[in-house]
Automatic annotation (TrEMBL):
Keywords assigned by UniProt, alphabetized: ATP-binding, Nucleotide-binding
GO biological process: oligopeptide export from mitochondrion
Pfam families with a match to the protein in the record: ABC_tran
Molecular-function annotations in GO: ABC-type oligopeptide transporter activity; ATP binding; ATP hydrolysis activity
Residue ranges annotated for the ABC transporter domain, each copy included: 1-168
Cellular component GO terms held in the UniProt record: mitochondrial inner membrane
Protein name: Lipid A export ATP-binding/permease protein MsbA
Keyword Lipid metabolism attached: no
Amino acid sequence: MSLRDYTQESIRAHMSVVAQDTVLFNDTIEGNIAMGRPSATHEEIVEAAKVANADSFIRECPEGYDTNIGDRGVKLSGGQRQRLSIARAVLKNPEILILDEATSALDTESEKLVQDALNNLLKGRTSVVIAHRLSTIHNADKIIVVDHGRIAEEGTHAETDRPATASTPN
């Protein structure tokens, strides 16, 4: 069946996006995660948070899963916000996952936790990962390197993991 045979709504129902800039609302931690699947139980939300490496920091919050995170999650660190976004995607359990620079703005410690969470999330699903660092996509089946809008390289991590050639203006 061709992709054109599906409605936009149908396609979106089967996918999740984890972007560099997370979308969070002035609501509780649980409420923000549940947006991935509003009918989810508390136990399912906790399980999604565990997969996203978010459960431990959530339990340290003053009201745990009932803690309000403020507009756009301002009461949380960048890594914590990103892990909530990943938990939301885990809860939705999409067939297709799009990661758009999901680790680019994180410090080293947060990046490790988020990368581990992403590795859990990517298992067994079709994923499109947009990243500048090859280390972010080292487990990919196929990597396409785009340079100035053109495909520069294509292959596995081993085939594309070599120093980039820099060009300087004359």
